[in-house]
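Technical note accompanying the year-one report. For the benefit of new consortium partners, we illustrate the data format agreed upon in the data management plan: each record pairs a sequence with a structure-token string. No post-processing was applied to the example shown here.
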Amino acid sequence: MALVKEKRPKSVELCSFSYFLGGLVRKKLKFKERCCEEIHIFLHWSLVIICIPDEEDESGPILLHLDSLGLHSSRSIFVNIRSYLKEEWNFLNQEASPSDIPIPERIWRHLPRRIDEKIIAVPQQKNDYDCGLFVLFFMERFIEEAPERLKKKDLAMFGKRWFRPEEASGLRVKIRNLLEKEFQLARESCSIVESSSSSGGALG
């Protein structure tokens, strides 16, 4: 996941996305239909989702920015993400054959100009510390509800009433319960191993 900072060195900017588009070519048709990137600036988290078109679609990738406080500059974030995609596009144009690119050639040829950007209206957090929970909830709901290949017409699924803010904040309890369960299972597993070791030693 990318940690986006203002005026970062180019070499640092490029490394976060090297797996993303490179993975599209290496995995060919098994590539990701979307990629989620958490953005962390000024002690606040927001989310960018990169939606990749299918081979029959006439549109290019869509960048979605979801911010539960409206604190981050979508324009600056889109510039950063576009720079990642453009640099990877330049690299892959030199390294990959057109048949290996899982995006229609007519789109790929002019990819930097075919990227669309959308600031998404989403439910807003009611405090100044639940941004991380909202990012996780955005991803969970998106994975559950969005079509495999999201298009512009599907953006109506979002909105201020997409879910109740309390649902996102409620992830705190859900995550704590999950961690407690995992810790309990780990303790029980360790106890079984220790008991088995002790029994083996006694028999010896």
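Partners are asked to follow this layout when depositing records. Residues 170-204 form one domain.
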